[in-house]
Design brief:
seven-stranded mixed β-sheet; alpha/beta; single chain; binds glycinamide ribonucleotide; Rossmann fold
Amino acid sequence: MQKLIGIKKINIAVLISGNGTNLKNLIKHSRKKHAKFRITLVISNNLSAKGLDHAKKFKIKKKIINYQNNQNAEKDLLNELYKSKIHLVCLAGFMKILSSNFIKKFKGKIINIHPSLLPKYKGLNTHQRVLNNNEKYSGCTVHYVNSKLDAGKIILQKKVKVFKNDTYKGLSKRILKQEHSLYPKALNKVISNL
Ligand code: GAR
């Protein structure tokens, strides 16, 4: 992709698999007066993702990608991104791993939010592993996506204290709240560097 000079608002696609609270929050930020981005496409690999309701409510184009075959799915995905002239892709609870071939096509233009203080606790089930290890802190990270899982350059991070006798529910809720403040900040940082 070429450098985005002179573009007033960046077209964003948000990829989800589940509840979409980060999506909802990004939509809210995109509707602010001086927002530098607009969300023009929501993609889900999961037909029953609750987050799709937010796309519907805000009249944002949505697409379901059938992931029975990864290669075909990524072909469809790429097609949708090109068709909608997407500049930047935000993964927000998207539970599929993108191939390095796909990432190359949107090099430096895919970001992800992960519910841990990366590089610690890459992958799934982060909160439970944090609790099992009696960590004092956890948090969330927004990072660029590269071909290694949860290993791309960190854009922003927020630390969250883990309490004694903390629960999965309590910790995940507190971290999610911080995600909602972190993701728009990180996105704006990325946009100002485009
Ligand atoms: C968020 O906690 C996000 O960090 C996590 O899934 C949740 C999605 O919530 N993502 C990952 O674990 C990616 N590996 P949401 O659907 O309510 O935005």
